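Model it.
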Amino acid sequence: MERTCIRCGKPYEGRSDKKFCCDDCRTDYHNQVRRERDRGFRTVNRILASNWKILKAQLREGRTRLSVAELAGQNFNFEVYTNTRSLLPGLRTYWCYNCAYRISRSGTVRIWEGGCRNNAYL
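Modeled.
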């Protein structure tokens, strides 16, 4: 019985449990499987990295308060964050890696860097 490579379809000889004709086909096949499996992670990580860069740029400029519209205008995605916590009703803090932000009812976003030791819950 002739066996064929599951990546390129070429016939090969070898052990009964062999699935690929060569190392290149084996590597290419497993890299493709990994790419497809990790596609969702890469998408989320890309959004998180973009959000973090936006927050860091605002902090570098000395801006700690801005409007939701300003952030949205910079393509900030409010649906993706690394952590969230609510200590009091209506006071939810969101983190994007080491940057934190809170959205007030009036639509103002307060941003800062660090955790609770840097007034994260004030």
